[in-house]
């Protein structure tokens, strides 16, 4: 949906009003230092019952899947478009597309599963390393490459901020029937990672869940840089202090292989969730703390473009997704705003963050 100028101005006014009273500095410091504690308490309270499984992921982000599976999704989408060709209501049509995406997921991937990982990824790397006359530590490097989880996969995905697994398990339903694929997932709330590992669908043959603080640059990942085909960053970056976001994006970009994709979806500026905050919950501009101590930031697409561009990634998609959600039971309308983006690592990395001269596409 599109907002009118009056609606836009009204939203700006509400955000300005609820930002007048800031959280005290000592409390802001506490929310930063104890961020993992508040998220652990969140998952201890709600377990895996708070968020719904994101079965829409394959519709919005078909890049999650290897090319063969993407083609299956495209065929299914074309078929559903053909069946709905006479629809005249664009809003209901969008909902139908989401329904079709969920039907596709259930139809194709709800069946039995087998743990197949396929080709050995490190074979060519091993040959290169062993034939390298200048590599004094080839043996050690080869051992390191072959020892990490998912080392024999050819298509690797990382979900950052996996929570209780609401993206993990819909993705795993696909991966367990797709040879050569492997999923990594991490969260800095240990309670969330335990929920993922204790789930009946979790299997270390095609998934590795681990505790990780993406804000800690010195903390190593359990796999080498430049091996990931896809990074999924959905409603995660908004939980991080704005001053630390760029460092997080820079580090994640290093994990992508050339041509790899980073898929992003998060809260947009003036979303209903932002406008509902009362005075005294604002930490800084467009950054708030909820009653349970967890935090949230509301982005513009310009901010998102700047962050990923500075990290050396190229825009594939960057849009504002505005939707009208209606709770018919409570007779409440909510104007939701999200930013959805796709950024790709160049095949030939010639990027120098200190010499960025690329012109902003929105200016």
Automatic annotation (TrEMBL):
Kindly list the biological process annotations in GO that this record carries.
methylation; tRNA processing
Top-level taxon: Eukaryota
Q: What class of enzyme is it?
A: transferase
Gene3D superfamilies per record: Vaccinia Virus protein VP39 (3.40.50.150)
Q: Print the keywords alphabetically.
A: Methyltransferase, S-adenosyl-L-methionine, Transferase, tRNA processing
Taking every annotated instance into account, which residue ranges of this chain make up the domain Methyltransferase type? 158-262
Pfam family for this entry, one = Methyltransf_12
EC nos: 2.1.1.-
* Gene Ontology terms for molecular function: tRNA (cytidine-3-)-methyltransferase activity
* Alphabetized PANTHER family for the sequence: METHYLTRANSFERASE-RELATED, TRNA N(3)-METHYLCYTIDINE METHYLTRANSFERASE
What function does the entry list? S-adenosyl-L-methionine-dependent methyltransferase.
The entry sums up its family as follows: Belongs to the methyltransferase superfamily. METL family.
Q: What is this protein called?
A: tRNA N(3)-cytidine methyltransferase
